[in-house]
Amino acid sequence: MKRARVIYNPTSGREQMKKNLPYILNRLEEAGYETSAHMTKCENDAEAAAKRAGENGFDVVVAAGGDGTIFEVVNGIAELERRPKLGIIPAGTTNDVARALGIRGNNIEKVCDVLCGGNLQPIDIGKVNDQYFINIAAGGKLTELTYDTPSRLKTMLGQLAYYIKGFEKLRLLKPIQVRIEYDGKLFEGEIMMFLISNTNSVGGFEKLFPNAKFNDGMFDMMIITKAHIPEIIRIGTQALNGEHLHNENVLCFQANRVKIEVAGDMQLNLDGEYGGKLPAEFVNLHHHLELFCP
């Protein structure tokens, strides 16, 4: 019999995961999996649990929670020689990865239909230094809000918590000098932020990278060059419908490998989690994992 391990964050989705767990386990059992669960208790717990599951021969690891839980699970299995297949049950604040793949977390029955349906897709992931990400790598003050926003506030307010924190960050925005090498090309100049994406959904914005694909072996990268705060706000508004691509302060391109150096201090955001500081090199690992999709 195949074995599945559900790794879930009990606080995600306004604490709905604990209520849905019996149903999830039962559906997987009915689909032919010997199923067990692990409740995360602290930071990096999901990563350690996913690594153990892979080393112990589990066929499937299911990440049930927000993008942070998925990030940890991916880091737990990415370096294994025999990597288990990945399932996702979205229960976070933005659920960018699931949104990009067409997995909607507001209906647990349909989510379990995806898990039990057996439709697998190869997906790319990114490697940066000694870490991995499945959706987004970013730098700049505004990108820090996802891990600076308290979990309790996200539980109470959902997406609104990020908007509140974002307005706090606006006054701290300053340009920083960077050197970016990408696939043999070079950009040098002052920027406000950068985004390296593997999908079309970032921070709930589904038109930020409208042509991004999660399995084409390429990152979609965006640089926002030096600009005043009103222009940054305008770019954010334009991003709701894709008009930001025509803004003169927005540069977009595709690359398989990106190396970034900064003249100053810039933190790295990986799938919404703190990922250390730059400099860093980003490499696209083509078809590195298999994931259950609709």
Kindly list the characteristics that best describe this protein.
10 helices, alpha+beta, 15 strands, elongated, 294 residues, 35% strand, 4-stranded parallel sheet
Describe this structure in words.
With 294 residues, this protein is an alpha+beta fold. It contains ten helices and 15 strands. The strands form two sheets. Strands 5, 6, 7, 8, 9, 10, 11, 12, 13, 14 and 15 form an eleven-stranded antiparallel sheet that branches. β13 and β14 (273-277) form a beta hairpin. α2 packs parallel to α6 and α3 packs parallel to α4 (67-77). It starts with a strand and ends with a strand. The model is unreliable at 153-157 and 160-165 (pLDDT under 50).
In short:
The protein has 294 residues and is an alpha+beta fold.
- Radius of gyration (CA) equals 19 Å
Q: Low-confidence stretches at least 5 residues in length (pLDDT < 50)?
A: 153-157, 160-165
- The total strand number stands at 15
Distance between the termini: 24 Å
> How many helices in DSSP terms?
10
Shape: elongated
Structural category: alpha+beta
What is the subunit arrangement here?
single chain
Order of helices and strands: EHHEHEHEHHEEEHHHEEEHEEEEE
Strand content: 35-45%
The largest β sheet comes out as: 11 strands, antiparallel
Proportion of helical residues: 25-40%
Mean pLDDT: 86
Question: SSE layout and pairings?
Answer:
Layout lengths: L1 E7 L3 H4 L1 H14 L2 E7 L5 H11 L4 E6 L1 H11 L7 E6 L5 H6 L6 H10 L2 E9 L2 E3 L2 E4 L5 H4 L2 H7 L2 H11 L5 E7 L2 E13 L21 E7 L3 H10 L11 E6 L1 E6 L4 E4 L2 E5 L2 E13 L2
Parallel strand pairs: 1-2, 1-3, 3-4
Antiparallel strand pairs: 5-6, 5-15, 7-9, 7-13, 8-9, 8-12, 9-10, 10-11, 12-15, 13-14
Helix pairs in contact: 2-6, 3-4
